[in-house]
Automatic annotation (TrEMBL):
CDD domains: GST_C_YghU_like, GST_N_Ure2p_like. It comes from Ruoffia halotolerans. The gene is yghU. Residues 38-128 form the GST N-terminal domain. PANTHER family: DISULFIDE-BOND OXIDOREDUCTASE YGHU, GLUTATHIONE S-TRANSFERASE-RELATED. Signal peptide: none annotated. It holds the Pfam family GST_N. This is Glutathione-dependent disulfide-bond oxidoreductase. InterPro entries: Glutathione-S-Trfase_C-like (IPR010987), Glutathione-S-Trfase_C_sf (IPR036282), Glutathione_S-Trfase (IPR040079), Glutathione_S-Trfase_N (IPR004045), Thioredoxin-like_sf (IPR036249). Residues 131-261 form the GST C-terminal domain.
Amino acid sequence: MTAYELPKVWKWEDENSDLGGNRPTAGSRFEQTLPVGEAPFQLYSLATPNGIKATIMFEELKELGVDVDYDVYLINIGDGDQFGSDFVEINPNSKIPALVDQSQEPRLEIFESGSILLYLAEKFNKLIPTDIHGRTETMNWLFWQIGAGPYVGGGFGHFFAYAPEKMKYPIDRFTMETKRQLDLLDKTLGKRPYIAGEEYTIADIVNWSWYGRLVLDDLYEGSAEFLDIDSYPNVLEWARRIAERPAVKKGLEVEYKPIKD
C-alpha cells in the first residue's frame, strides 16, 4: 500500500454526477416536488437506524392512546432523494428523517432524529419524564446517542462493512470506541431496566435504534460475533425486550409511500 502524503490543501478527486454520491458541498442538486398528504404529520424518511426512530416514536404514541396521524414517504438516499429541492427546504442538512407538522400555522419543519423525538415527546407530554431529575437524565442519554452514534455508524460500520478494503487502524480505532460505548450501556443497564431509569422513554428509542439493532446483529452482518456481543448481557437483554414491544414492531413494518409515480 502506497503511503498517503498529506497535501497542503485538500482537493476532491473523485468528482461524479451521481445524484446520491457524497460531495463536499451542501444544498439541493435538482428540483423536486414532494407529495403532501392530509395527515397532520408528514414524515420523509427511510428505514435506517436514524429513520426508524421516528416511526417507532409515532407508533409508541399511538399505543399510548395519542391521536397522532402521520403519512410517511420513502426518501431513497441511494438515488439522492435527500438532495431534492423540497427535501432540502425541510432539512438543509440533507439527512433523513425530516418531519413537517401541518397542524401549526405556518407549518413547522423539524429535522434531526433527536429533535424530532424531543418535539413529539414535548408536544404530547409522553415518553419523557416531567420531573427535573428524570427529564434531565433522559436528555443526557438522548444527546449522548446523537453524539456517540456516528462512531458506530460512520466509524465502525463504515470500515467494518462498507469500505472497499479492510484497514486495521480504523477498524481497531472504531471497534475500540464501539465496545467502550457498549460497556457503558451494559454497566448502566445493570443498574436499571431502561436507559434513563425505571421508565421507557425517548432515550430508549434513540439508543435501541442503533445499539439494540447492533447487538441483535441487524445492522452489519457478522458484527455481533466480531464485537463479542455476549459479553454485554444487560444490553442484549434490554435489546430483546424492546424488540418485543408492539409499537417497535409496527415502527419497523411501516409501509413507506413513494415520492415518485
